[in-house]
Design goal:
The complex is a heterodimer of chains A (590) and B (285). With 590 residues, chain A is of the alpha/beta class. Chain A has a single domain, classed as FAD/NAD(P)-binding domain (3-Layer(bba) Sandwich). Chain A is built from 17 helices and 18 strands. In chain A, the strands form 4 sheets. In chain A, strands 5-12-13-14-11-17 form a 6-stranded antiparallel beta sheet. In chain A, strands 6-2-1-10-18 form a 5-stranded parallel beta sheet, covered by helices on one side. In chain A, helix 5 packs across helix 17 and helix 7 packs across helix 14. The C terminus of chain A is likely disordered. Chain B has a domain of 197 residues. Chain B has 13 helices and 2 strands. The N terminus of chain B is likely disordered. The chains are: A alpha/beta (590), B mainly alpha (285). The complex binds flavin-adenine dinucleotide and iron/sulfur cluster (SF4). The site of flavin-adenine dinucleotide (FAD) has 40 residues of chain A, from helix 1, strand 7, helix 9 and helix 17.
Chain lengths: 590, 285
C-alpha cells in the first residue's frame, strides 16, 4: 500500500530532516522552498558543489540571505504597541537565509544539546513574573535517541571525555562524538586558559564540522576562517542541505525552489489540511495536494503562514483557537565579552570557535536575582574566540560620525580588532512572553503581495538582569587570558538600545535564533501543537522548526529543532493518517 | 587539506544550469577602463565624466592614498570606477553583483571561479534593481514603501557637493573637501557620505573581482590574506602564533582609542530604506 504523501514547506533545518526521514520511510515527499539552490549538484550523483566563496562583499549582498528589500519584516516594542504605534522599523528583523538548506547554509554549526532542566523549568524552578514559563510536553530522555541520530548524520565533532560532569549529568550521552575536535584555535586556547584560572571549564564545542577527510564523502575543514555567516566553499560543514536534503533528493524527494507558499488549504470544516497554495518561480499561482503538510518555514514565517491561512473554520488563523499562534517569540539575548591581546591572535583562522563554556547556564538564585525581583537568573553557552574579518573591521571603524580618512586608514593598519581581539559571546536564555509575538502587519506587503510578519518585542527584565550578572564574568575571563591587555563587556542592554531609535537592530535581535511561535503542549487551550509537532486542531498538519519550542534554553537551537523533527517524522511514519479527500494520493506535480 | 577532495567535491554543474556567467579578467579591465575613460568621453556606466571626477575626490578623502597617506588609497584601488560599475550593473551583462565560488586562483585554486558571476534570477534582479534604481513610484516596486536608489543618491548627492563648493567640489583643496564631507548638519551630504563610504570600503577591501582593490592594495597594506580556499590554514597556523608575524605589538594609546568602536561590534541591521548601512560586527551565533 502506498504511504501518505507529504508536503514540506521550507528546506531548512527542520524541513530537510523531516523530508529525509519520511522519504527513507517510503513516503512521497515534495519540498517547497522560496529560495534558490546555491549548491550545484545537490541531490545528484555528481556530488555537491558550492557557489560560496571567501567573499565578504557577496556575504553582505543578499546572496543567500533573505532580501529585506523584497521581503521586509516590521517591528515595534511592546510599549509602542501599547501606544498604538503600528511599527517603528521596516527591514531585516532577525532574518535567516532564504535558500535551499535554510539557515544552516551559513551557520556556525554549533550543535549543543539542551539540558534536562530545560524541559521541566516550570516544575523545577517555578514561575517567573511576567513570563509564560511552562514545561515541555516531553523530556530529555524522549529526545536523546534523536539527538544521537542527528549528530551522526551531521557529523558532529566533540570530545565526551573533556565535558564537565554537570554537562553530562544534564545532557547524558550514550556515545562518544562521531568526529574528533578541530585543531584548537589559538585565541580560543588563551580564553580557555583565562576561564580555567577562574575555575571555569572550557571544552571543545560540539560542532557539525568535518574534522576527518572524506567523512560522509566530504572534505575536511581547512580552517579557512570565513565560516560564521558564509556558505562553506568545500562543504566541510554539515547542514540541512548536505546532511539531509541531499540524500532525501537522491532517494526521490522533490525540491521546488523559488516556490513561495502563501496559504495552507484545508477542508471546508477546517479539520484537515489538503495541501498548500504557492507562487512558482515565475509568479504563477499553484496548488499542491498531499495527505500531510509539514510547516518548517522557521519560527517567524511559520506563524505568519498560519495567520495568513485563516478561514471561516479558523477565523483567527489556522490552528489558532488558543490564540497562541505567533506568541512567546524567543530570540535569545547576546552578551559580548571583548578581549584585546598584545599579540596577533588571529581569531579569524578556523571555524567560528573551537571551545565553549557552560558555567553560566544557571539557574542562579543568589541575591542579584532576588534584588531584580526574579526567582533566578540564567545565562547561556558562551563561545570563546569570536572574530572580525577585514571588511567587518573597516565597517566597525567607520561607524562613528566622521570616522573616515587618514585616521580610518591608520586604524586599519594597526588592526586592533582584527588582529588583537578575541571575543566571547554568550547567547542567553530569554523568557517567553505572551506579548512578544508575530502577527501580520496591517499595511506593509512583501514582493509577493502578502502582509509581512510584524514582530512586537521587548526584553524581559530577566534578560537584562542576567546579562548584567554574567557579563562582567565574561570580561574577567578575557582579562585573565594570557597576554590580554584589556577585557570589556557589552551587555544585552547596550545592544538593545537601538530599540529607542526604532531600529530593532544590532546584536540583540540578530541572534538568528527563532523560537516559540507555535508552542507545543498537551493542552489545546494553551498550545498550538502536541508533543509530536502536530497541530491540535488540524490532524494532518505538523510544525517542524523552532516554533514549537516552549522555552529557549541557553543553547543554540538547531540540533534540537532537527531532533524534534526526526521524532515527529517517526511518529508520522508509524501512524496511519486519514486522507484529506477520502483516498490516498500523491502530491500533484504540475 | 586534500586537493583530491576539493576537486572531487566541487561540481561544475553551475555553468551547466545557467547559474553562472564568466567575466574574464580582460573583460573586467575593459569595463573599468570604460569608467576610467569617462573623463574624456562623457560617461561611465552610470556616472557622467564630471560626476566621476567628483566621486574620485570623495573616495580619495574617505580612504586617502599618497601623498596624504603612505599606502595606496581608494583612487589607486580603482574604487570610484568599481562604484560606477555597480551603479550601472544592469547596463552590463551579467550584472556583477555576486561573484562566483568556491575559489579564486589566489590560494591554490585551479580555476578562477570568482570571475564566474552568479546570474541574478527574476527575484534577485528585482531586489537589485530597487537598490540601484529605487522604487520610483512604480506600483510593482512600492509594496513596502519607497526606497531611494543608489543611482539617485549619488546623482543628487554629488551635485549637492558641487553646490556646497561654489560649483566644483573636486577642485577644492583636500581640507576644504573634508570640511564639507564632515558637516553633520547637512543631511544630504551625510546621506551621500554614508552610501559612498559603505561602497568604498567594499570596493577597497573586498575581492578584486568586483573591480576595486586593484593590485590587492587593500589587502597588502593591511596584511590581509584574502580568500583562503582551497588552501586554508594548517593546524599549526590555527593553533599557534606565527613565527615572525607582522611583529608589532599594541600600545596603550591605541587601546584607549578603541573604546568608541565597541558598540559597533554588535553589528548594524539598518532599516530597509538605508540598506547600505548594514554591517555584521563580531561574528558567531
Ligand atoms: C550566521 C548564523 C549562524 C548560526 N549559527 C548557528 C549555530 O551555530 N547553531 C545553531 O543551532 N544555530 C545556528 N544558527 C541558526 C540556524 O540557522 C537556525 O536555527 C535554523 O536554520 C532554523 O531552522 P528552521 O528549520 O527553523 O528554519 P530555516 O533553516 O530558516 O529554514 C526555513 C526555510 O523555509 C523557507 N521558507 C520560509 N517561508 C517560506 C514560504 N512561505 N514558502 C516556502 N519556503 C519558505 C526559507 O527560505 C528557509 O529556507 C545560525 C544562523 C545564522 C544566520
Ligand atoms: S572554516 Fe571550515 S567549515 Fe568553516 S567555511 Fe572554512 S572550511 Fe568550511
Amino acid at each position: 500500500m502506498s504511504k501518505a504523501s507529504v508536503i514540506v514547506v521550507g528546506s531548512g533545518a527542520g524541513g530537510s530532516a523531516a523530508a529525509w526521514a519520511l522519504r527513507r520511510a517510503g513516503h512521497p515527499v515534495l519540498i517547497l522552498e522560496k529560495g534558490r539552490n546555491l549548491l550545484p549538484g545537490l541531490g545528484t550523483h555528481h556530488g555537491i558543489g558550492s557557489l560560496f566563496g571567501n567573499d565578504e562583499v557577496k556575504a553582505g549582498r543578499a546572496f543567500e540571505n533573505q532580501d529585506e528589500i523584497l521581503e521586509p519584516r516590521t517591528s515595534r516594542t511592546q510599549e509602542e504597541a501599547g501606544q498604538g504605534v503600528d511599527r517603528s522599523f521596516i527591514g531585516d528583523v532577525n532574518d535567516l537565509p532564504t535558500v535551499a538548506g535554510g539557515g544552516t547554509i551559513h551557520w556556525d554549526a554549533k550543535t549543543p544539546r539542551f539540558w534536562k532542566q530545560d524541559f521541566k523549568a516550570l516544575s523545577l524552578y517555578g514561575p517567573v513574573p511576567g513570563a509564560t514559563m511552562a514545561d515541555w510536553p516531553l523530556s530529555y530522555d524522549d529526545l536523546a535517541p534523536y539527538y544521537d541520530r542527528v549528530e551522526a548524520r551531521l557529523g558532529v565533532q566533540g570530545d565526551v571525555h573533556r565535558m564537565p560532569k554537570r554537562t553530562l549529568e544534564q545532557a547524558p550521552r550514550r556515545h562518544q562524538f562521531p568526529l574528533p575536535p578541530n585543531p584548537p584555535m589559538y585565541a580560543g586556547k588563551l580564553l580557555a586558559e583565562g576561564a580555567a584560572s577562574l575555575g571555569y571549564e572550557a571544552y571543545p564545542f560540539p560542532m557539525a564540522i568535518n574534522s576527518v577527510e572524506g567523512h560522509h564523502g566530504r572534505a575536511r575543514c581547512n580552517s579557512c576562517g570565513f565560516c560564521s555567516g558564509f556558505g562553506c566553499p568545500i562543504n566541510a560543514r554539515g547542514s540541512a542541505a548536505v546532511s539531509f536534503l541531499h540524500e532525501a533528493l537522491l532517494h526521490g524527494a522533490k525540491l521546488r525552489p523559488r516556490s513561495f507558499v502563501y496559504r495552507i488549504d484545508t477542508t471546508k470544516n477546517g479539520k484537515l489540511a489538503r495541501g498548500v497554495s504557492y507562487l512558482d518561480s515565475r509568479g504563477r499561482k499553484r496548488k499542491a495536494r498531499a495527505d500531510i503538510v509539514i510547516l518548517a518555514a522557521s519560527g517567524i514565517e511559520t506563524a505568519r503562514l498560519l495567520l495568513l491561512s485563516r478561514s471561516a473554520a479558523h477565523p483567527h488563523g489556522l490552528a489558532n483557537r488558543s490564540g497562541q499562534v505567533g506568541r512567546n517569540l524567543m530570540f535569545h539575548f547576546v552578551t559580548l565579552g571583548i578581549g584585546i591581546f598584545t599579540d596577533d591572535v588571529h581569531a579569524w583562522r578556523g571555524p567560528s570557535t573551537t571551545f565553549v563554556i557552560d558555567d553560566f547556564i544557571g539557574p542562579y538564585t543568589g541575591p542579584e536575582a532576588k534584588n531584580a525581583g526574579l526567582p533566578y537568573l540564567k545565562g547561556g553557552l558562551c563561545e570563546t574566540g569570536g572574530d572580525i574579518l577585514l571588511l567587518d573591521e573597516a565597517q566597525i571603524y567607520a561607524a562613528p560620525p566622521n570616522s573616515w580618512g587618514k585616521q580610518h586608514k591608520n586604524l586599519m593598519r594597526q588592526s586592533v580588532f582584527r588582529r588583537h581581539l578575541a571575543g566571547m559571546s554568550m547567547l542567553g536564555e530569554d523568557m517567553p512572553q505572551a506579548a512578544n509575538r508575530v502577527d501580520l502587519d496591517p499595511k506593509i506587503r512583501d514582493v509577493y503581495g502578502f502582509p509581512v510578519p510584524r514582530i512586537t518585542r521587548s526584553q524581559h527584565k530577566f534578560e537584562l538582569a542576567s546579562s548584567s550578572y554574567y557579563g562582567p564574568k565574561l570580561a574577567e575571563i578575557c582579562q585573565r587570558a594570557p597576554g590580554a591587555v584589556s577585557g570589556q563587556v557589552i551587555p544585552a542592554g547596550t545592544l538593545s538600545s537601538n530599540n529607542a531609535t526604532g531600529d530593532l537592530t544590532g546584536g540583540l535581535a540578530s541572534t538568528a535564533h527563532i523560537m516559540g511561535t507555535a508552542r507545543m503542549g498537551h493542552d489545546p487551550r494553551h498550545s498550538v501543537v502536541d508533543a509530536f509537532g502536530r497541530a491540535h486542531e488540524v490532524e494532518n498538519l505538523f510544525v517542524a522548526d523552532g516554533s514549537p519550542f516552549v522555552t529557549a534554553g541557553g543553547f543554540n537551537p538547531t540540533l534540537t529543532i532537527m531532533a524534534l523533527s526526526l521524532r515527529m517524522a517517526e511518529h508520522i511514519a508509524g501512524v496511519r493518517y486519514e486522507r484529506a479527500r477520502g483516498r490516498r494520493h500523491r502530491p500533484r506535480h504540475h | 587539506m586534500g586537493e583530491g577532495i576539493s576537486r572531487r567535491s566541487f561540481v561544475r554543474a553551475g555553468g551547466a544550469l545557467g547559474l553562472l556567467a564568466l567575466v574574464p579578467r580582460a573583460r573586467l579591465e575593459e569595463l573599468l577602463a570604460a569608467s576610467a575613460r569617462a573623463a574624456g568621453t562623457g560617461g561611465g556606466h552610470f556616472l557622467t565624466a564630471h560626476e566621476l571626477d567628483t566621486l574620485r575626490a570623495v573616495c580619495g578623502r574617505l580612504v586617502p592614498g599618497p601623498p596624504d597617506d603612505p599606502d595606496p588609497g581608494a583612487r589607486e584601488a580603482h574604487v570610484p570606477e568599481a562604484i560606477d560599475l555597480l551603479l550601472g550593473a544592469f547596463r552590463v551583462s551579467p550584472p556583477m553583483i555576486h561573484a562566483g565560488g568556491p575559489f579564486s586562483r589566489r590560494a591554490g585554486g585551479k580555476r578562477d571561479d570568482f570571475t564566474h558571476f552568479v546570474r541574478l534570477d527574476r527575484h534577485a534582479a528585482l531586489g537589485w534593481r530597487i537598490r540601484l534604481e529605487g522604487t520610483r513610484g512604480k506600483r510593482q516596486r512600492e509594496f513596502a514603501g519607497p526606497v531611494r536608489g543608489l543611482q539617485q543618491i549619488y546623482r543628487e548627492g554629488l551635485a549637492h557637493l558641487d553646490s556646497r563648493a561654489a560649483g566644483h567640489f573636486a577642485a577644492l583643496p583636500g581640507p576644504a573637501q573634508d570640511a564639507i564631507l564632515s558637516d553633520q548638519s547637512d543631511d544630504q551630504v551625510q546621506e551621500l557620505v554614508g552610501v559612498a563610504l559603505s561602497n568604498t570600503l567594499e570596493a577597497m577591501y573586498g575581492p578584486p573581482e568586483y573591480g576595486g582593490n586593484r593590485g590587492l592594495v587593500g589587502w597588502k597594506y593591511t596584511h590581509w590574506p584574502g580568500d583562503r580556499q582551497p588552501r586554508g590554514y594548517t593546524d599549526a597556523q590555527v593553533s599557534g602564533l606565527d613565527a615572525g608575524g607582522p611583529g608589532f605589538k599594541l600600545d596603550a594609546k591605541a587601546l584607549r582609542g578603541m573604546e568608541r568602536f565597541l558598540p559597533a561590534l554588535a553589528g548594524v541591521r539598518p532599516s530597509r530604506e538605508r540598506f547600505w548601512l548594514r554591517s555584521r560586527g563580531l561574528r558567531g551565533r
